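User: tokens in, sequence out, please.
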């Protein structure tokens, strides 16, 4: 692409050296640089790309986009100074791939919990309407019916725009994506044009990165603040910060609620372990989902589908056809008369929601046995809170390893146990080996009981000392049930 065309997408403050006529590619990883590449030096949370400018030049970069021009510059390289190189990368990536978001109806979903379910169900909903649709999510990315492995909730700008371009080329007209707080804060979505944004809720998470809840909130809000005037902004007004998301937002504002006046309303009529009867704006629909938190997700899907101009009657029919996302309240029934529920709940609020739902559905008709851990090298502050909530709402609790990453799993368990009082410890076991923990929970179960296995959901691995080992909660349960 011609360099002048590429750079027209960003605000340049200074250029040192002669710009070449064109470049062969845009890249932010110095290890991937080849001859005639444009290198963007991004200041990341772990690594500062400015330290690798000389390496990129050595490998063949002819244009370097950076915030600070090096003291010593190569004579055959153009150095382009910008105010924020992370934002510049997003805009350059979008320009390089022909601004694919302009050719799609792109909707982003943000919030602590519910992003994956809401985005995936919107993808499924619009496929039921007969459209070719793209999906960018934690579990898997899809280009219509082609699965593309997901490594992050929201990919880096180059991978993200490459996927969006593939969606356009495949004939997709709609795309739905999760927008993580990290991606908003790191400007990974800079340069994208959204037709709509959805906010689910905000509870404690990612304090290892954001440090404070307010900083976490502001990262989410950045997404809404950037929505164009012709987009829609849909927020859950039952969440205490739901309306905060709409402040300073230029988009058309809409609300959804289970409890108060809103543009879109829903009400739970009957809840069972195999589904929920829900009234959307007064119309009853039998759904395959369980729990109040899932009714919120379904209501967001219903509202967004209506805002995107689809027929309301057909939308309600399609709502009854939607099925749960992998690892989100997935049930496995045993021949012995008890049930295992596999769920991704890995925050205190998500865990409380799932357990409260199980308690309501069981209505004292059986016990809840919970298996849960906490991830290593992440927010340590939530560990005792998760254990305390799990103990409060469970009859038996088994604390175990999740993805310890580079931490000692026994120390993670100790952090969780610190949240338990003497009474809670009486019905709590700590078993580091996750396979053994699940097996123990099954041994404790009796007919009518529910075993909740929380924290990993769709993940099919355990990450230990930087190595991923195959481990799938659902596989383990099915294997034990079959014995």
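Assistant: Sequence out:
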């Amino acid at each position: 692409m011609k360099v002048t065309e590429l750079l027209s997408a960003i605000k340049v403050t200074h250029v040192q050296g002669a710009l070449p006529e064109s470049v062969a590619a845009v890249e932010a990883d110095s290890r991937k640089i080849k001859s005639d590449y444009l290198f963007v030096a991004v200041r990341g949370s772990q690594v500062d790309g400015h330290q690798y400018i000389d390496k990129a030049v050595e490998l063949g970069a002819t244009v370097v986009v950076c915030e600070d021009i090096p003291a010593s510059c190569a004579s055959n390289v153009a150095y382009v100074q910008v105010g924020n190189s992370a934002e510049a990368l997003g805009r350059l990536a979008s320009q390089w791939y022909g601004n694919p978001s302009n050719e799609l109806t792109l909707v982003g979903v943000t919030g602590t919990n519910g992003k994956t379910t809401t985005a995936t169900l919107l993808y499924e909903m619009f496929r039921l309407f007969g459209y070719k649709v793209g999906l960018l999510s934690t579990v898997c990315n899809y280009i219509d019916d082609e699965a593309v492995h997901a490594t992050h909730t929201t990919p880096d700008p180059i991978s993200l725009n490459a996927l969006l371009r593939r969606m356009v080329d495949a004939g997709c007209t709609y795309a739905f994506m999760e927008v993580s707080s990290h991606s908003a804060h790191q400007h990974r979505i800079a340069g994208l044009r959204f037709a709509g944004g959805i906010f689910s809720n905000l509870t404690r998470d990612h304090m290892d990165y954001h440090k404070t809840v307010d900083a976490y909130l502001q990262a989410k809000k950045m997404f809404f603040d950037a929505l164009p005037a012709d987009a829609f902004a849909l927020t859950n007004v039952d969440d205490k910060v739901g309306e905060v998301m709409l402040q300073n937002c230029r988009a058309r504002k809409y609300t959804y609620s289970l409890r108060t006046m809103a543009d879109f309303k829903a009400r739970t009529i009957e809840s069972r372990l195999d589904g929920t009867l829900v009234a959307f704006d007064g119309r009853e629909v039998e759904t395959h989902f369980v729990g109040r938190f899932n009714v919120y997700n379904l209501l967001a899907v219903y509202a967004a589908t209506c805002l995107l101009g689809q027929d309301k009657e057909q939308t309600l029919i399609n709502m009854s056809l939607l099925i749960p996302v992998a690892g989100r309240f997935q049930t496995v029934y045993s021949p012995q008369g008890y049930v295992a529920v596999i769920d991704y709940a890995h925050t205190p609020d998500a865990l409380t929601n799932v357990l409260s739902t199980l308690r309501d559905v069981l209505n004292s008709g059986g016990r809840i046995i919970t298996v849960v851990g906490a991830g290593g090298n992440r927010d340590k502050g939530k560990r005792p809170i998760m254990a305390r909530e799990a103990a409060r709402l469970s009859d038996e609790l088994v604390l175990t390893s999740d993805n310890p990453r580079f931490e000692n799993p026994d120390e993670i368990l100790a952090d969780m146990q610190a949240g338990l009082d003497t009474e809670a410890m009486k019905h709590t076991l700590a078993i580091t080996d996750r396979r053994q923990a699940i097996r123990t929970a099954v041994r404790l179960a009796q007919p009518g009981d529910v075993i909740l296995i929380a924290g990993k959901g769709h993940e099919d691995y355990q990450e230990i000392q930087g190595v991923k080992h195959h481990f799938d909660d659902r596989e383990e349960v099915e294997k034990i049930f079959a014995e």
